[in-house]
Amino acid sequence: MTAQGLAAPYTAFRDVGAHAPLDYRPLEHALDTRPGLHAAVLDAFRPGRSLCETGPAEADAALEGLNSRWPAVRCHALLILEGVRLSRARRERFTAGLTRLCREDPDATVREVAAGVARRTGR
After folding, report:
1. In whole angstroms, what is the distance from residue 82 CA to residue 84 CA?
2. Which of 48, 63, 72, 116 has a CA-to-CA distance to 104 between 20 and 30 Å?
3. How confident is the model at residue 45, as a pLDDT?
4. Mind listing the pLDDT tens digit for each residue in 36-57?
5. Using an 8 Å Cβ cutoff, are 61 and 25 in contact?
6. Percentage with pLDDT > 70 across the chain
7. Please, which residues have CB within 8 angstroms of residue 63's CB and are 6 or more apart in sequence?
């Protein structure tokens, strides 16, 4: 149950009513405190789940998420950036991060998610 609460601000639940801008710091802090919840949070963000809607104004936060120490955050950032309209500079940052995660990420799930995003986006 706790993992669902941690994941909720990053899922479609966030899109109901007014919400704060995308910020991974609270999630990262919670995972630092309770690392045993990571697997359940990662499961909440797997492809096919309803993630939050984001737009260009939140792209920088999502791009920073590609560098998170937590695989769940990296996966979430990959999946939401897949559908965001990005400026040329942000698109280049996304492509570079996507390529890096496909090739070098130490986590197999992140590499798999990155490869799927790369296939779907043609990057």
Report:
1. 6
2. 48
3. 87
4. 999 999 998 887 777 767 878 8
5. no
6. 92
7. 77, 81, 90, 93, 94, 97
SS (H, E, C) the chain: CHHHHHHHHHEHHHHCCCCCCCCCHHHHHHHHHCHHHHHHHHHHCCCCCCECCCCHHHHHHHHHHCCCCCHHHHHHHHHHHCCCCCCHHHHHHHHHHHHHHHHHCCCHHHHHHHHHHHHHHCC
Q: How far does CA 88 lie from the centroid of its chain?
A: 20
Average pLDDT value for residue range 64-88: 94
**9-40 residue pLDDT tens:** 777 665 566 667 889 999 999 999 999 999 99
Tokens of 12: 């479609």
Q: Counting Cβ atoms within 10 Å, is residue 33 exposed (0-12), middle (13-18) or buried (19+)?
A: exposed
Q: How far separated are the first and last CA of the chain, in Å rounded? A: 36
Q: So what's the pLDDT on residue 117?
A: 96
